[in-house]
Specification:
The chain is mostly helical and 117 residues long. The protein has one helix spanning 2-107. The radius of gyration is 48 Å and the shape is rod-shaped. The termini are far apart.
Length: 117
């Protein structure tokens, strides 16, 4: 009878070990599935990060191109400012010449008295 009781206890322990082994196997399967899911997510994120980096590099290149164009426009504006200053000097000279000419004309007969401003 003692051996029957021992056999029953051993069978009970074996069933409990089988249950624990089954639980461990199920846990391992779930972990494997989760690991695959996480790997897929990381792969997707890596791909998205690479795309974003590429976009950023392209945008930076465009910004550099725009900066270059702005520098070119600034140079042209400086040139135009110089030309405007030169034209202002020419206009001042022309006004002076015209006023001098009128003064000489008034001395020789005509007295309009107008000055160019």
């Amino acid at each position: 009878m003692a051996s029957d009781e021992l056999r029953i206890i051993l069978e009970d322990v074996k069933e409990k070990f089988d249950l624990v082994i089954e639980a461990v196997n199920m846990t391992n399967e779930r972990l494997d599935r989760n690991e695959k899911t996480v790997e897929e997510r990381f792969d997707k994120l890596d791909t998205e990060i690479l795309i974003i980096k590429k976009d950023i590099r392209g945008t930076q290149g465009e910004i550099q191109g725009i900066k270059g164009e702005i520098q070119g426009v600034k140079g042209e504006i400086q040139g135009i400012k110089g030309e405007i200053q030169e034209m202002r000097g020419d206009i001042r000279d022309l006004r002076q010449d015209l006023n001098d000419h009128r003064s000489n004309t008034e001395l020789h007969g005509s007295r309009s008295g107008k000055k160019v401003s």
